[in-house]
Amino acid sequence: MRSHYCGDLRTEHIGQDITLSGWVHRRRDHGGVIFLDVRDREGITQVVFDPDREASFALADSVRNEYVIEIQGLVRARPAGTENPDMATGAIEVLGKELVILNKADTPPFQLDEHQQVGEDVRLRNRFIDLRRPEIQRKLRFRSKITHYIRNYLEENGFLDIETPILTRATPEGARDYLVPSRTHEGHFFALPQSPQLFKQLLMVSGFDRYYQIAKCFRDEDLRADRQPEFTQIDIETSFMDEEGIMGITEQMIRGLFLEQLNVDLGDFPRMPYSEAMQRYGSDKPDLRIPMELVDVADLVAEVDFKVFAAPATDPKGRVAALKVPGGAELTRKQIDDYTKFVSIYGAKGLAWIKVNALETGAEGLQSPIVKFLGETVALQIMERLGAQNGDLVFFGADKAKIVNEALGALRIKVGEDLKMHQCEWAPLWVVDFPMFEEDGNGGLTALHHPFTSPSCTPDELIAAPEGKLSRAYDMVLNGTELGGGSVRIHDQTMQRAVFKVLGISDEEAEEKFGFLLNALRYGAPPHGGLAFGLDRLVMLMTGSASIREVIAFPKTQSAACLLTDAPGEVSAAQLRELNIKLRKTP
Ligand code: ASP
């Protein structure tokens, strides 16, 4: 059929007879001449039909947008003055000789050029049309390049691509499982994997030494922000490598990828302990492109007669921190109110602020609703600690440390974006030395990564004082997004049992849930570790997309539904009976 892709034609093809197959992108009738913009996955070419070829002219006149056609014609230079420098094929056009309509198309629910005028739901419901848009085609093609590069890199470094089951048991990554009822085992359920974690560890016990998989993972989460219930990980595990080795080989992979695909040299990734990241940025995935930092001022306000600050300043779990926005004094009252609303999402009860108008006049020169409560001396001490200058604005967070970190951490990103404070395009780093556990909100502890992460102490030390113990986990962060994370794992039964003990997982429960892993640890488990990268997020960042939905061919909505196939759907009574499932009537 085709001799060339539409988008590939250039001046070097002038004079050639060619055949194109594709879709009618646009049809224009210009004073008796018909122009068809014909589109395929490589791009668009302009085809011209003159009336002197009556049959094909009449056909060209009859086609409509999105008809599928085949054209034979002659490549020629566009007449002088009609070249289009914005189009890759803009220097040539095709003089159409023969035209065949391979298939007609109903008027599409939206024109590709006008996709912005319809809601995302319309586009998702008609995703096969949305996917025709050159922008999405470019992104999915880029995604394919990325996976190709990664497979190559890993294969060259001795990693083996091994598939792990989709129908499996629960894997604890901290989200809810998607369950699949078993027909053959009445009352029993499979869980879809939240990650291949346990299987990749088993592969290490089996001696495969280096494993990878581009793996689908499933997490039934309340879909905050930009998450998908099913997503793709670049999943990696190695034996006989410590964290240095694992971070080294994967950092090299990501650097190579950026260099090859974007011509960007990310340089050596700095490392930052988790505690420092929280202290300075209020986040375990700091966006280092933004120069602002959180500064603690609890010691300065502990004694003031202002409960809002003094109470958290003296609470061991509290934090009082300031965020200096250079040049922020120009923000209007309305903007500050909007930021106050913004931080309330994170549980902040308000957003105190001080505008630095004229520091040389002392506290007089500070404009703020709170200076009178803080007292002039304290207010000036704070300004000094922050190195504040005229024209700056200082925001405050005072609450439980968790709320202050989340609120000021998010505010830092938002203000940084609004005021265009980014100092570079890419800022990667490794966050290391994570705590092993965090509070679960019910007086117990839960694993910060997952319970197979190795602590950096002995089992006895861990049991004696689990809080504050660090793990051998690491996250790769880029521009404030967690690209990937992993850890050196526990390869020793005693340690694994110690961790379960701290987590309040009884021997019976551990046996019931992960007996197969504990069992494997008894039979010669090598030291091992790995990590997983979120492929969707990586592609999103590299293509500059606003959402991961833009880089997934068939994404789900925020409420975890597929509008295209109308899934999840109801099932027949017969199917339910076969599965021995009876639905409870919703009241
Ligand atoms: N299984 C982990 C996750 O999905 C990654 C890892 O530890 O390798 O987040």
Topology (elements, then pairings):
Elements: E1 17-30, E2 33-40, E3 43-49, H1 54-62, E4 68-77, E5 92-103, H2 120-125, H3 127-130, H4 134-156, E6 160-161, E7 179-181, E8 189-191, H5 197-205, E9 210-218, E10 230-239, H6 243-262, E11 271-273, H7 274-281, E12 294-296, H8 298-301, H9 307-314, E13 318-325, H10 333-344, E14 352-356, E15 366-367, H11 371-374, H12 376-386, E16 393-400, H13 401-418, E17 428-432, E18 437-439, E19 445-447, H14 459-464, E20 473-478, E21 481-488, H15 493-502, H16 507-521, E22 528-534, H17 535-543, H18 573-578
Parallel strand pairs: 3-5, 6-9, 11-17
Antiparallel strand pairs: 1-2, 1-4, 2-3, 4-5, 7-8, 9-10, 10-22, 12-13, 13-16, 14-15, 14-16, 17-20, 18-19, 20-21, 21-22
Helix pairs in contact: 4-17, 5-16, 10-13, 15-16
Aspartic acid (ASP) is lined by residues 173, 195, 197, 485-487, 530-532.
Helix content: 25-40%
**Which superfamily, in CATH terms, is the homologous superfamily of the largest domain?**
Bira Bifunctional Protein, Domain 2
Report the radius of gyration as a whole number of Å.
30 Å
Q: Main beta sheet: strand number and arrangement?
A: 8 strands, mixed
Name the average pLDDT: 95
The low-confidence runs, each spanning 5 or more residues with pLDDT under 50, are none
Strand content: 15-25%
Main-sheet strand order equals: 6-9-10-22-21-20-17-11
* CATH class designation of the largest domain: Alpha Beta
Could you tell me the number of beta strands?
22
Number of helices: 18
| Shape, principal axes of CA atoms | globular
